[in-house]
Amino acid sequence: MRSDKFIKYTASISEALQKADFDKINILADSILKAWQGNKQVFICGNGGSAANALHIANDLVYGAAKDKEKGIRAIALTGDISVITCIANDVSYEDIFSRQLAVHAQSGDILLALSGSGNSPNIVKAISEAKEIGMRTFAILGFSGGRCLDLADVSIHFQVDDMQISEDMQLIVGHMVMQWLRDQ
Question: Can you list the domains of the chain with their CATH numbers?
Fold first, then answer.
């Protein structure tokens, strides 16, 4: 029956949230607040559904977190400029689509938020490594085992779920939690 599948899906989301490490989500929120106050930038990346989530979270930081304030957070989804992405992927490699953008735009003290179900995507791993070389603070929201990014990122918010859609849902839920908290600051 269809409703059984829906109930099971909802239960999976609830279970993932009950196991959430809210201390790490607090660290992410505090770091983004400090970046906002210091006029630093937040860069967000991901592949597939996580790429769309990067765009969504960037929008929430630029506009949603600002509420009635004049200026939102300087947030950029590295997934947004398809001409840059396809140029780098074609001329260099798909593995470099995020790290090359960071090398041009990011500065020490900025933040990278990497979104990944597996935590093993080569372009995400390379983006985190590049961000660390630049002197950025790195965060990752991960599913499954957390993959290579689990230990690579400065702070990993890990949901040990073996379901890509639940993993992607957790990315947006964390993004919305942070955005609403920031809006109230």
Answer: 2-183 (3.40.50.10490)
